[in-house]
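Supplementary Text 2. Reproducibility record for the structural model of the 491-residue chain.

All settings were left at their defaults, and a single model was retained for analysis rather than an ensemble. We include the record here because the model underlies the residue-level annotations in Supplementary Table 4.
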Amino acid sequence: MPRLPLFIAPATFDDADAALAQVQAIYRSSTEHLRDALQRFVAGEELGRPGDGVRACYPFVRVRTDTVARADSRLSYGFVAGPGSYETTLTRPDLFADYYREQFRLLLANHGVPIEVGTSSQPIPVHFALAESDHLEGTLDAGRRLQLRDLFDLPDLASMDDGIANGTHEPPPGTPQPLALFTAPRVDYSLQRLRHYTGTAPEHFQNFVLFTNYQFYVDEFIRLGRALVADPQADYAAFVEPGNVTTLRGGAAGAGTPPPRLPQMPAYHLVRPGHDGITMVNIGVGPANAKTITDHVAVLRPHAWLMLGHCAGLRNSQQLGDYVLAHAYMREDHVLDEDLPAWVPIPALAEVQMALEQAVADVTRLQGYELKKVLRTGTVVSTDNRNWELLPHPGPERRFSQSRAVALDMESATIAANGFRFRVPYGTLLCVSDKPLHGEIKLPGMANTFYRERVDQHLRIGVRAVELLRRERPGALHSRKLRSFAEVAFQ
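Retained model, structure tokens:
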């Protein structure tokens, strides 16, 4: 029999703080049990035979109701779909404390029944129990690493697929319905991936995320972030760069060590209290990167993510440096075809569209009809073929024209579609950097001038849009149009 931590019996709660405290106690007991056993194993202690290993399990939260009634039908989340039992496993209550507390509060308020917290039967993989600085298994030889697999639970991909988010999950008869989009192992997996790809700890990610496909934008964001935290009048608490290198408010140096080389998709965090600041990630080029990073950022349940990048203008009336506000997407990226079929429409979200348009007006100081000089709304095409221009003629131009497309890039539709898939509000504001259908291709001199003149303004527009979105109630941003028929209760 596996060695388990001290059992904490399930209990019911009608107070969100008390329920959260129970989740924290179970998680702390489980992870301390695993970490202690792993330390002893690394030190050479024999912990038992295969089958007699060490195990600890995630906490769970469960709610049961026998009615479809709820207190507030205007909400897009915070309630279950109908009578029955609903359950999810939970992880990292230190990181997700505010989020869990709010989900518990809404369930209690909407259904008027207690919630149950206990220890699940889902094992915690030992790697997911390690702290940020723990790398104990790195000292093991090959034979000892094989024993590790026999004595501890390792990540099991079967327990962390995206069937719930994709709408394909069918619980076996007699088992609870899901309460959240992501199980605890799926969340832990993404937290590990975020560290790997972005070079920063998940704790630093903020509720508003800007994605870009050019380092120029990151350079400007670094300059802006350092200036804002050095300004005692600004309301940002810190600026965090890869390696968790932290500049504190007032300009003082904090923790962290610069990495020897930048990670694949470096992230930078302009931190406000309550994770209400801005994270920027340079995702590089291509829809595969766009899907990879949004697959993992989604578990943090941000309030919105926006794409700021460059695009090819498809209309002769556009000028280099003009902005494109996507109000529809033509998906030729293909990376989400198995998860979200191309026939699924990706709607524009009114709150995000209005914030982006107002931000362009605020920064450019153009209003009304004059704003049309620099801003156009329309369909954005995202392709997985960077050299689409070289396809035999007539090529895809007819499809683009039939779709009423005004711009083309490689990432925006993927980011929007994954926002739709994962119920994360999304938006896209692109800047025209070339017009290949009209003979204006990128040349070094032209590109350098464009970058100098537009990147700073474009970034300031994105930051201004976040400021406007921050004023919205979370319930307004996470609108009902993103929710399915039988939706999970957690935001």
